[in-house]
Specification:
The protein is an all-beta fold. The protein has one domain: Sandwich (Jelly Rolls), CATH 2.60.120. It is built from no helices and eight strands. The strands form two sheets. The chain has a four-stranded antiparallel sheet, with no helix packed on it. The chain is globular. The mean pLDDT is 96.
Length: 134
């Protein structure tokens, strides 16, 4: 009875943040404004195909609430993460995180933080966003 949809955020992609200096972070935006208006529940499903992350380096996928304005080019985005998934594990691994009472749009971000001393940060993932009605 519950209706739902699966949105592909990315096909299988390789990410390499090994160039980051020690203790530095970088965030890339994978999707700016995924419309989730008719839905109440959301979950990110991340397939971990390969990973080489050393030391205390981290990688995190975040779905952050946003609500773009047709009147203003500024980004209106929540500061806190709605859904957060740590990229870790032994492939093949399925990682997930979820949220209810979701915002009207999601901005999907990937953040990598380099260890000190610097180490390798490489992984291959594919991402789906599962949306369900209340």
């Amino acid at each position: 009875m519950d209706s739902g949809v699966i949105v592909t955020v990315t096909e299988k992609c390789q990410y390499d943040f090994s160039y980051l200096p020690a203790s530095q972070s970088e965030t890339i935006i994978l999707a700016r404004a995924v419309n989730v208006v008719p839905f109440y529940y959301a979950s990110l499903w991340v397939r971990l195909h390969a990973i080489r992350i050393g030391g205390s380096a981290t990688a995190t996928l975040i779905a952050r609430g946003t609500n773009p304005s047709k009147y203003d080019q500024e980004k209106f985005t929540l500061s806190s993460a709605g859904i957060s998934v740590n990229i870790t594990g032994t492939p093949p691994e399925l990682l997930t995180g979820s949220q209810s009472a979701i915002p009207p749009f999601y901005q999907i971000e990937l953040t990598a933080t380099q260890a000190n001393p610097a180490t390798q940060i490489y992984f291959e993932i594919s991402i789906d966003l599962l949306l369900r009605a209340a």
